[in-house]
Structures are given as C-alpha cells and as structure tokens.
Design goal:
Blueprint lengths: L1 H40 L1 H4 L3 E3 L5 E4 L65 H18 L26 E2 L1 H14 L4 H10 L1 E2 L10 E3 H13 L1
Antiparallel strand pairs: 1-2, 3-5, 4-5
Helix pairs in contact: 4-5
C-alpha cells in the first residue's frame, strides 16, 4: 500500500515538474525568442506592417484595405421621424480601392463600422452579383470621366467592380490606378503627368518575379498624393 502511494506521489511530482518546465519553455522562453527574432529581422512586418504619413503618424496597415469616403450625411425621414445615416459616397480626391462587400457589416461591436472579411460566394450568374457589378461599372465610368478624359465601360478592369476573397484587399491593379489618374489630378489641381509618376513609383511587381500580379497599394499612393497636393 505504502509503495503504491509513494509511486503515485513520484508520478505526480514528475508530472508537475514536466508541466513547470514545459510551461517555461513553451509559454515563456519560446514566445520571447520568436518575438525577439521577429523584431530584429522583420520589425515592420512583425508590428502589423504599419504605414505612417509624412508626420510619422500611423494611418493604417499595408495589409488591410481602407475606404476613402465623404462623411455620411444624416437626413430626416418625415414619415417616421427617424434620422438614419445616408449612404457614404466616395471622396473623389483620392484613389479608390476595390469594392469591399465582404460578408456584411459588423454587428457585434457597433462602435466601429467594420466590414466582416470574406467573399460573397455568389455565382457569376447570381442576379444580385450581376447588379452589383453593373452598378459598380457605371459608377466607375461616371466618377472617372473628366472634361479631358473619357472612360469607356470596356476600359474598366475587373478589380474595379469586384471584391477580393477577403473583401479587404489593400491593392488595386495598375490598370485601375491609371484609370483614376485624370480624376485625381483634376480634383487636387495637379498635373496628370505628376500623378502618373506617383502611380508608377508605387507600383510593385510580381513577388519574386513570378508570383501574383503587379499591384498598387492604395493607402501608400494616397499618402503620396496628399504630400504632392500640399507641396
């Protein structure tokens, strides 16, 4: 009996010691080592790939798309007395990202107007998706046509009217960026060639030369536009 109790006690003691050692190794030392290596080797990416403006203020992440809309205008409903917020309209001073439909809006934390990340999963012949694409194309044509530049429906690239798999793509194609150049230049009183140069400067090629597609980070490009407009 005593042998059995002693054996059990030794097993419990060994288990507790193993728990303590593994907790220190896996729960303290390993995370600290990985964090330290990440900070030294990949500090920017380890901290969320933050993007800062010219003043050094963090304005977003290069991994998550943002919207560039005018403030929502409240309007009164004379029949119900409600005062819902009007639909947001794009601020045409800025380059616009891909549509961000996602899976709908955030309903958990209503303090923030967030888009839930995810694809719509609608088939190409889904009437709702077809209407979204047609409406988006019409809006792109109307918004980007200026007195000196005419946008044709066939010139609108796919990424201008469809959301990505996450719905939060931070990048657009060089073709979509070029399509917006004349409008952005006009809205900010800039020369078209200046804006075209900013697009070229902010265009990234395929990863490692063969993966993915050329892309333009919208936030970085808009920061450059803001700096140029103020100069």
């Amino acid at each position: 009996m005593n042998n059995s109790v002693g054996h059990t006690a030794r097993l419990i003691g060994a288990g507790l010691r193993a728990l303590l050692v593994l907790t220190v190794l896996c729960g303290v030392l390993y995370p600290l080592a990985v964090t330290g290596i990440a900070q030294v080797a990949l500090g920017d990416k380890a901290n969320g790939s933050e993007i800062k403006d010219k003043s050094g203020q963090v304005v977003g992440s290069e991994l998550i798309g943002q919207t560039y809309n005018l403030p929502k205008q409240a309007h009164s409903d004379s029949t119900t007395g409600d005062n819902p917020e009007g639909a947001a309209k794009p601020d045409l001073k800025w380059f616009q990202p891909r549509p961000s439909n996602g899976l709908g809006t955030n309903s958990v934390n209503t303090q923030y107007s967030l888009i839930l990340s995810g694809a719509t999963n609608k088939a190409a012949d889904n009437p709702d998706l077809v209407k979204l694409v047609e409406d988006a194309k019409a809006a792109v044509v109307a918004d980007n046509t200026t007195a000196t530049y005419k946008v044709k429906p066939e010139d609108v690239p796919a990424d201008a009217v469809t959301s990505s798999g996450s719905g939060l793509d931070p990048n657009i194609s060089p073709e979509y960026a070029e399509l917006q150049v004349h409008r952005v230049a006009e809205q900010n009183n800039l020369d078209v060639k200046q804006v075209e140069k900013l697009v070229a400067d902010n265009t990234e090629g395929r990863t490692l030369g063969f993966m993915g597609e050329p892309r333009v980070n919208v936030l970085k490009l808009n920061i450059a536009i803001k700096a140029l407009a103020k100069s």
